[in-house]
Design a protein that fits this description.
Length: 328
């Protein structure tokens, strides 16, 4: 009976893979190969989500993810983060907490982003239940990255083409509230890599239509996606770096985040060192060391009204610039 309930639960709350297709979403198609790759990314996310809501245990879920192609497993963990947060939000329990106590601990960045997807699907009065297991004052901002990605991916006309910006966003309940849209914009920028079909000029053109005050965070998100999801050549990466212009330090920061997520989960691909070399001028391993060296400690207090997550991002950008200056 329990197995039947899990199967029914999967069918009821799991998004269909067609909902993430380029044809359904109206995204730009650079070429059939890139479209297929980026659609596979979405499909692997949905697989991870489905495994989370249907599997009898976390161990069973992880075993199923292990069967997926290696370069896509991080996306499956992101989807599983959403799935566990949906279970917490809809039915109660501590699914996310138990998930993060497993091998998912090394995928913590992806899991937090996945929780943000769940917030976009849950009624707001259930947000507290979905996020009770993520009190980390540093990484919690990644939840907003996930929310922003979801909205730009599924409500593209509003959030990308009309450049909609949230007002009085109710999470996190502890401020600083002014920073909420910065974190959301990192997710929106990450989604724009998909909306623009991983074509760097098109992605840069989309960013260019936003108010200039939003460009830095949007480029950071796009740089993260360009490095983690990829599906882009060396020449295209150089084009994107050139189009970023003064926002290249933010692109580099996003690339460092992406490289760290791959290095710490042993999921580095051939694309990872290419992306960090072009966008940040360092190796994935150097990126991972840098972000750890400048990462604020949990007990650190914000500098004025600047949250420690933003302090971390600024330190990464400055660190990359310093490393580039030392190794011209």
């Amino acid at each position: 009976m329990a197995g039947n309930w899990r199967a029914i639960r999967r069918r009821l709350i799991t998004p269909s893979k067609t909902s993430a297709s380029f044809a359904k979403r109206g995204f730009y198609e650079k070429n059939p190969e890139t479209r297929k790759y980026l659609e596979t990314v979405g499909g692997m996310f949905i697989d991870g989500y489905a495994y989370a809501v249907e599997s009898r245990s976390i161990a069973e879920m992880e075993a199923r993810i292990d069967q997926l192609p290696r370069q896509f497993r991080g996306f499956a963990y992101e989807g599983a983060g959403m799935g566990h947060a949906m279970l917490d939000g809809m039915f109660g329990g501590r699914h996310v907490e138990k998930f993060l106590a497993s091998r998912a601990e090394s995928h913590v960045y992806m899991v937090y982003v996945g929780v943000g997807w769940a917030l976009a699907r849950l009624p707001r009065f259930r947000w507290a239940a979905a996020t009770k297991s993520i009190p980390d004052p540093l990484l919690r901002w990644l939840v907003l990255d996930g929310y922003g990605f979801h909205q730009a991916f599924f409500k593209t006309e509003k959030y990308v083409h009309q450049q909609y910006q949230e007002k009085n966003f109710p999470w996190p309940t502890e401020g600083p509230r002014w920073y909420t849209n910065n974190a959301l914009d990192q997710g929106i920028g990450r989604a724009m890599w998909f909306v623009g079909g991983a074509e760097p000029n098109r992605v840069a053109d989309l960013i260019g239509k936003f108010p200039q005050a939003r460009h830095a965070d949007l480029y950071a998100g796009a740089g993260l996606a360009a490095s983690y999801a990829g599906s882009v050549s060396e020449e295209e990466l150089r084009t994107f770096a050139s189009r970023a212009g003064v926002y290249l330090p933010q692109v580099a920061q996003g690339s460092v985040f992406a490289a760290t997520a791959r290095v710490e989960t042993n999921l580095v691909t051939e694309h990872t060192p290419l992306a960090t070399r072009i966008l940040a001028g360092i190796t994935p391993e150097q990126a991972q060391v840098l972000q750890r060296q400048v990462r604020p400690a949990p007990a650190d207090r914000p500098e004025g009204d600047i949250p420690i997550f933003e302090l971390w991002r600024q330190r990464i950008s400055a660190g990359v610039t310093a490393m580039q200056g030392a190794n011209p």
